[in-house]
Specification:
- By secondary structure, the protein is mainly β.
- It has one domain: 3-methyladenine DNA Glycosylase, Chain A (Roll).
- The protein has 3 helices and 9 strands, in the order βααβββββαβββ.
- Strands 1, 2, 3, 4, 5, 6, 7, 8 and 9 form a 9-stranded antiparallel beta sheet that branches.
- The radius of gyration is 15 Å and the shape is globular.
- The termini are far apart.
- The relative contact order is 0.24.
- The protein binds a DNA duplex through β4, β5 and α3.
- It is an enzyme of class 3 (hydrolase).
- Pfam families: Pur_DNA_glyco.
- InterPro entries: Formyl_transferase-like_C_sf, MPG, MPG_sf.
- GO terms for molecular function: alkylbase DNA N-glycosylase activity; DNA binding.
- Belongs to the DNA glycosylase MPG family.
Length: 186
Amino acid sequence: MKRNEKLPRAFYARDTIEVARDLLGKHLVHVCDGVERCGRIVETEAYIGAHDLASHSSKGITPRTSIMYGPPGHAYVYLIYGMHHCMNVVTETEGHGAAVLLRALEPVGPLEGSTKGPGLLCRAMGIDKSINGMDMLGDTLYIAEPSSQARFNIVARPRIGVAYAGEWAAADLRFYIEGNSYVSRK
DNA sequence: GAAAAGATCGGG
DNA sequence: CCGATCTTTTCT
């Protein structure tokens, strides 16, 4: 089988909105207990920096957000509502505090349970807080460009669950593949 | 110390 | 619409 191409650091070290859009269609891979789990990214959200009131980084550098303020290409994973994990990829440059949340995957190969939504995505991929801070250019967790795929349209919509963020709640910073049935919400 | 709220999900 | 469930941050 043809080997997919792992995304380089430079892919993540760019404008967060561009990264969020470009991540659509890419393959997220997690090697866990010798088993490779893989899903195609179909929905993302951009959290663009300290001035974005929906972003955890808007609180400044805290123990939790230090990963977001670190170098790009690392995983930022946290527990939300006491029961669900959410996975992000750090973008831009060290000190910027931006990341892209992965919200939904289309399964590539066997995956247990739904991958439709950030909490379920992490459960199906075996992602939890032990992954927090991991470099996504290693061999355990990474994102790769698939060898080939059909062209698709990108839809931009407001982010989910950020009503507290004032004006930022309305910004079109959620992106998904038009017509894909694994997108968590229209 | 204590309290409140949260980038969610599933059940009623 | 509401409860589960627990971490992080903020307030006293």
